[in-house]
Structure formats: structure tokens, C-alpha cells
């Protein structure tokens, strides 16, 4: 815990050899590192205290949420140390890069490939929600491939703004998340909860299948909010003609403006498209 006695940080920092930078984020960078004692490769997120504007609870919250999470498709929290200027959070390493990069490289995913990725993420989100954790920032930059192989599974990373809700009626109100991925009830400052993650997965599924985001044509946040609340999901023919109705129904269900009408993670996993029974093998489109 922060504030509790820690071994002098230079001792722990010396336990690791710092290597290449894996990514950069809001408060610092993430590096690939090797734990010298057993040669294990890890990822260390370095957070500059000066950038936290005095709110050091952010770091503490990220650790508190992650400490109890153990799932094959969620980055594992391993250790923490700090120096005068920085916090260091140690996580299991994902070497395969961001889902974001693979969308950029491939343009779009076939339905069968998309089902595989989205199902993996949903299994992890089901676990999170069972543990009353709302991630709040699901997007392709925070979904990482464990390794470089074509079969590599995805893991969820970045619990920087994740939140524990103590019971079903617990309502969150902080406006946060990433533009284009946040649910309308967050933008409206209505109370919200677990369904915001389902919404983000709807945006991600849409993006995977066509290579662009569902509200790209909205010129302002206000316009986007109206489109969301009208349940406007446009499947432009020239990009979507080869995609199954099951996929479109699935996306429309996740992008329901009423959070209570969205499927839960468990329900989504039972929908035909995500079970893989209706997805087309449209790799050559
Ligand atoms: P931020 O909250 O600043 O967005 P993230 O936790 O998302 O920080 O980390 C920033 C980037 O660093 C990620 O998008 C990813 O590219 C990389 N990264 C984060 N955690 C890991 C990890 N465990 N293994 C590999 N790369 C990681
Ligand atoms: Mg991130």
C-alpha cells in the first residue's frame, strides 16, 4: 500500500533491468523490463508524480482494484515501488502489441476472427463484473495481445480509472473514459454502472468489423450524443454488405441507449453471434 513502509525504492528498482518502451499514457510510460532474480519479463508502468496534480489516490486505486483480479485475460498486477518522483507499477507482460495496431494493420477483421477476440474480452469482462469492477475505459488501445503469435489471446490492461461498485444500486457519476467509446449515460452525467463497459464493447465490435468507428460522421459531441440516444447505428452498405445480420443485431443490442436494456456480459456470451454459430467466414471481403 502507498504510505506504508516500503523497502527503499532504489533497492527494488535495481531488481529490474529496464528495456524498450512499450507504450505511453496519461501519466508516464510503460517499459518492458526483466526481473533479474528469475529473468522473468514484466511490464512496468512509470507514473510521474508531478503529473498527478496532487491526486495520488489514482495510483492507489489502480492497485487496489487490480490486486484481487486473477484471470487469464486480464493483465496481472505483480508489484509496486516508488521513488521521490515516480511510482512504478509492475504487471505481467503482454508482448503482442495493442488490438488498436492490429486493426490499423488489417483494416478490419473477419467475423470469425472478431468473434474470437470479442468473446475473449467478454469472458474477462464477465469476470470483472462478477467482482463488481467496472473498467470504464475499454478501447482497442487498452486491449493487448499476450504474445506475437496469430493465436495469441487478448488481455485487458489499464485499470487506471476502473472502479469497484459495492452493489447493484451503486451509481457512478464521474465523467470519464475515452471520446467515441463512452456510453451516452456518462456523457449525460446520469448515474451509470457496469453497462458502460458493454457499450464500449459495442463500439469496439463495430470498429473491428468495418475498420471505422460508429459515430465518425458526428461533427460534435452533442451530435454524437443525439445519434447514440436515437439508437442510430448505421451499417453503410458498401462496408457492411458481407456481414451477417447476427453481427449487426449483436452490435445494436450492445449500443442500446438504455443501459438496462443492454445485455449483461453473461447474456452477451449466450447470444448466437458471440457463440460463433452464425458468424460468417468472410475473410476475403
Ligand atoms: P494509460 O492509463 O496512461 O493509458 P496504460 O496502462 O493503458 O496507461 O498503458 C499505456 C500503454 O502501455 C498501453 O496502451 C500499452 O500499449 C502499454 N502497456 C500497458 N500495460 C502493458 C503490459 N502489461 N504489457 C505490455 N504493454 C503494456
Ligand atoms: Mg490506456
TrEMBL record:
Keywords: ATP-binding, Kinase, Nucleotide-binding, Serine/threonine-protein kinase, Transferase. ATP binds at residue 49. Residues 16-274 form the Protein kinase domain. GO terms for molecular function: ATP binding; calcium/calmodulin-dependent protein kinase activity. It is an enzyme of class 2 (transferase). Its EC number is 2.7.11.17. Transmembrane segments: none annotated. Belongs to the protein kinase superfamily. This is Calmodulin-dependent protein kinase cmk2. It comes from Dimargaris verticillata.
Amino acid at each position: 500500500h502507498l504510505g506504508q513502509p516500503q523497502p527503499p525504492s532504489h533497492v527494488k528498482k535495481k531488481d529490474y533491468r529496464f528495456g524498450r518502451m512499450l507504450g505511453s499514457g496519461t501519466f508516464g510510460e510503460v517499459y518492458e523490463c526483466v526481473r533479474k532474480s528469475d529473468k522473468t519479463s514484466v511490464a512496468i508502468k512509470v507514473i510521474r508524480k508531478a503529473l498527478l496534480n496532487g491526486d495520488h489516490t489514482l495510483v492507489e486505486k489502480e492497485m487496489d482494484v487490480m490486486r484481487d483480479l486473477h484471470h487469464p485475460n486480464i493483465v496481472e498486477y505483480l508489484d509496486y515501488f516508488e521513488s521521490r518522483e515516480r511510482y512504478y507499477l509492475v504487471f505481467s507482460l503482454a508482448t503482442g502489441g495493442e488490438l488498436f495496431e492490429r486493426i490499423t494493420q488489417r483494416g478490419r477483421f473477419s467475423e470469425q476472427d472478431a468473434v474470437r477476440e470479442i468473446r475473449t474480452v467478454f469472458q474477462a469482462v464477465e469476470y470483472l463484473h462478477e467482482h463488481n469492477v467496472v473498467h470504464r475505459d475499454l478501447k482497442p488501445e487498452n486491449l493487448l495481445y499476450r504474445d506475437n503469435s496469430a493465436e495469441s489471446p487478448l488481455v485487458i490492461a489499464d485499470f487506471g480509472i476502473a472502479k469497484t461498485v459495492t452493489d447493484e444500486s451503486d451509481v457512478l457519476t464521474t465523467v470519464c473514459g475515452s471520446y467515441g467509446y463512452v456510453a451516452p449515460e456518462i456523457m449525460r452525467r446520469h448515474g451509470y454502472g457496469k453497462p458502460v463497459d458493454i457499450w464500449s464493447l459495442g463500439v469496439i465490435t463495430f470498429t473491428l468489423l468495418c475498420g471505422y468507428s460508429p459515430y465518425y460522421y458526428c461533427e460534435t459531441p452533442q451530435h454524437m450524443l443525439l445519434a447514440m440516444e436515437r439508437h442510430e447505428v448505421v451499417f453503410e452498405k458498401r462496408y457492411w454488405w458481407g456481414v451477417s445480420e447476427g453481427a449487426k443485431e449483436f452490435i445494436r443490442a450492445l449500443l442500446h441507449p438504455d443501459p438496462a436494456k443492454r445485455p449483461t456480459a453473461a447474456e452477451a456470451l449466450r447470444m448466437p453471434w458471440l457463440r460463433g454459430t452464425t458468424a460468417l467466414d468472410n475473410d476475403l471481403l
